[in-house]
Design a protein that fits this description.
Layout (H helix, E strand, L loop, with lengths): L2 E6 L6 E6 L9 E5 L7 H11 L4 E5 L22 H14 L2 H17 L8 E6 L1 H12 L4 E7 L8 H5 L4 E7 L5 H14 L3 E6 L16 H18 L4
Parallel strand pairs: 3-4, 3-5, 5-6, 6-7, 7-8
Antiparallel strand pairs: 1-2, 2-4
Helix pairs in contact: 3-4
Length: 244
């Protein structure tokens, strides 16, 4: 798939981003894909290209652009059990500094930039996110109900800002939760909030998974669950934003 690195203007300076495009034709529906806390790297670029191959323009922003360009911390080629604690400790100050206010300042800029691209079809877009990016996706969809038609989060803390936020969502939704992240009781609370919203959604725990199960460059990766994630994501996008 064609791809490029871009700079997205934001209120706090330019954010570097990776973009992947379908081959030929167009325009195509747009997807804002928030990465996990480890950020833009070969695995995320490959996932963006995979999604672009199904007919979507995909923008993956560096959400920690205030701390510097990608990579904000150096990453090994494979993130194993021994690597994770140190990396998380280095990233945690960036995560804690990324307040809802910062999320929303960036979200408006990212959505405007994506929608203005000539390769992107007029109208609503989708937002997806992984891990911490799943929370950013929820915040983005809640703040831009007229712009975001589909919302997907995988192993993300979707209820971290409270269940009331979920009750106000208007997009079609899929939440794919890691078994190690969410109890059945917590899932019931999340789903009750989505019921209150009165929207089309699926929200489920992927059996036997741990946090990060979609990420092929980590020891959390689960091939079966990753395949299910692609099935769910493509079904959601096909319903809300069918590719031409």
């Amino acid at each position: 798939m064609p791809d490029t690195t871009l700079l997205v203007p934001t209120p706090d300076g330019p954010a570097d981003a990776f973009a992947a495009f379908p081959e030929g034709g167009g325009p195509h529906p747009g997807v804002l894909m928030y990465p996990d806390a480890f950020g833009i790297r070969p695995a995320l670029r490959a996932m963006a290209r995979e999604l672009a191959g199904h007919g979507y323009v995909v923008l993956v922003p560096n959400v920690f652009h205030r701390q510097g360009p990608t990579p904000v911390v150096e990453l090994p080629d494979f993130i194993g059990e021994d690597d994770r604690p140190g990396l998380v400790a280095r990233l945690m100050p960036f995560i804690e500094a990324h307040t809802p206010e910062r999320t929303l300042a960036d979200a408006g800029a990212f959505l405007s930039f994506l929608s203005a691209r000539p390769e992107v079809a007029p109208g609503p877009v989708a937002v997806s996110g992984y891990c911490f990016g799943g929370l950013l996706a929820v915040r983005t969809a809640a703040a831009h109900p007229g712009t975001v038609a589909a919302l997907a989060s995988f192993h993300g803390p979707v209820h971290a800002d409270g269940l009331d936020v979920l009750s106000g969502l208007r997009a079609e939704i899929h939440f794919g939760h890691a078994a190690g992240d969410l109890t059945p009781q917590a899932l019931a609370g999340v789903n009750a909030a989505l019921d209150t919203a009165g929207i089309a959604y699926t929200s489920e725990i992927y059996p036997g998974t741990v946090h990060g199960f979609t990420m092929p460059d980590t020891d959390a990766f689960d091939a079966g669950a990753s395949g299910h994630h692609w099935d769910r994501l493509l079904a959601l996008l096909g319903s809300a934003l069918p590719a031409g």
